[in-house]
Please model this.
Amino acid sequence: MRFQLAACAEMLWQDKPIEWRAARLHEMGFGVGLWNWPAWDIAALQKTGATFSIMNGYLEGRLADAEGADMLLKSAREAAQVGKRLGVHRLNLHGTGLGDQGLPIQQLAHVSPGTWLRARDTLNRICDMAEEEGVVFALENLNLREHPGCPFNSTSDVLSLVAAVDRPELRINLDLYHTQVGEGDVIRHAEACLPWIGEVQVADNPGRCEPGTGEMNWPTIARALKNMGYGGPVGMEAFAKGSAEDALEAFRDAFTF
Model:
């Protein structure tokens, strides 16, 4: 069993054009993750021949109120069209739209039972649209230290919502960096999420750089993922502490047996 390794192009080689970064990742044997796709030349990215693992699946909207849900559906459909041009495997979602520095555009201090039900219903609408478009969305967990006021942020919250919807058009983007910062106990969280994981994302803590630069024991985590039967995509969503090439090789070493 081999993991399908990818990396976020926007966090590496930040002085280079995005199509150069995608082509370099492809040359090194990695898939490509994207965030801010409206800023990039999609046709140029298509020509790189890269495999696009994940990209931002919306530009605006919220899960848990009527106006926000309508905005999210419209925005997610637009993202799905772009994603299909690139052959993106998963389109990423959060509990609410994020602005500068990852701060929620509309913060929510308290999530009521009714709010949970509205979020579940919105995700079902997303799945209906995804089924029409032939795409898959993934809901990402975040941590409140860096994303204060973001609803449905924790690994447990994301698991509860995705499991409640339980449709193939919606998976979990399990970001283990955010799990570590917000909750810890990353292996047991991964085991709980396993039936719904669409992608695992990694970065070490503190610093959000490549595996081996912080406190997390990535070879142990990687072997635990393998032993529990996970063989899907693993994306490095991390900055490089030194050169991007060295960071990527450290990532590859941690997830290769």
